[in-house]
Fold this sequence. Notes:
2 domains; alpha+beta; seven-stranded antiparallel β-sheet; globular; two-stranded antiparallel ribbon
Amino acid sequence: MKFNKKILFSSAIVAGLFLSTATTTVHATASSAPKTTNVNPKAVIETKPKLTKQGYILRVKNSKDADLIYVGKANYKYALKHYKAFKGKTLSPKKVQNVKFRVEKVVRFHGNISGAPLYLVASKDKKYSCWTTQAMLQYYYLNSKAMRGVTKPLLRIGNRSANKDITSLKNKQNKRDFNAATKAAKKLKGSQKKFVMASLKQLKKDGNINVEGDNLLLFGF
Length: 221
């Protein structure tokens, strides 16, 4: 996961890049393993059970760069098959800061079009949904008081990556901060502890803060 170095495209920008192409329909079926569907030679939509099964634990960030939220189940159903921006009732992310979202699908770009993956997220009742990048998403409780002991050392690792290009957890300072985050995570309770500990375990396995796309704890840093 790149911190402050990688250009992240919003779904609106990506939509602009594809205005000259026809609307694409994608049919994807859920299973225990990721499914991929070729949308065109440059984009692939995937179902990601690993992310979806983590449940409604994300917030769409209240940012001037954030994508608008589509309102209504009909728009959600349309978004399942179309990753490009479309006409429909929308509202600002500012209006849904208390709403929890889940990852439903992911689209990745290849070939001549480069850009960060887009994630289709939706609320539990499917009233709210949007396609957006991981930079515009974050763990719902990321900024809570209980999480400070975890987020502060992880942010130091992220800043070290951005400013000094030091990404490996084998780095002495990064290792120290990772251990501090793990120690704090062990003090969390219930499902929050389970999620954060699993995320840190994955980060340790990856060994690098810049492995992007599948670790929801690192979204939006």
